[in-house]
Amino acid sequence: MHRRFIPRTRITWGVMLLILLALSLGSCQNSVPEAKALDPAALSAALLEDLSFPTMLEIAPERLQRYYPYDSSVFSVAYVHLAFDVVADEIAVFQVDESQKVADIKAGLNKHYSERADVFSAYAPEESARINNRLTVEHDRWLIIVITDDTETAEDIVNAHIH
Question: Domain residues of the chain, as ranges?
Answer without folding.
Answer: 40-162
